[in-house]
Amino acid sequence: IDFQSNIAGNPLCTIRNNTFYAFDPGTTAACIKCSASGIDQPGLALIEHNTFMGCDNYIDMNPSGFKNSVIRYNTFHAATADENFDNTGGTDCQVYGNAMGGVYTNAGGYVAGSGDDWSGNMSEAVGTESAHGWTYTVPAAG
After folding, report:
1. pTM of the model
2. Domain residue spans in the chain?
3. Collapsing DSSP states into helix, strand and coil, what is residue 61?
């Protein structure tokens, strides 16, 4: 699913109740992306109740990112993905209630946008970004 429309990122889109599996033709394959740069960010998106597994990249919005959007109640299996959820370029999103497999860091494939709130996700307890498996801040740079 590509959020670009060559003029702006498509706003007000909902992606709900899907299973994304085997998007793997190479390191650029992504289940959800915005392939155009230099356009307005996709805004007010709702991404919920999806399962991502066995793909090269799950949600790779770099460089546009989502703005003022909600990403909740998704499951990210970390077995093979390079980018689990990269919101580089995004702003002011609420990311909560997700099961985030793998390491909850930028290097682990999780990258927040500016002003994002990523508290309340389930993840491995790593560093100071989570306590007892619950995140309370954006992923660490390491």
Report:
1. 0.90
2. 1-142
3. coil
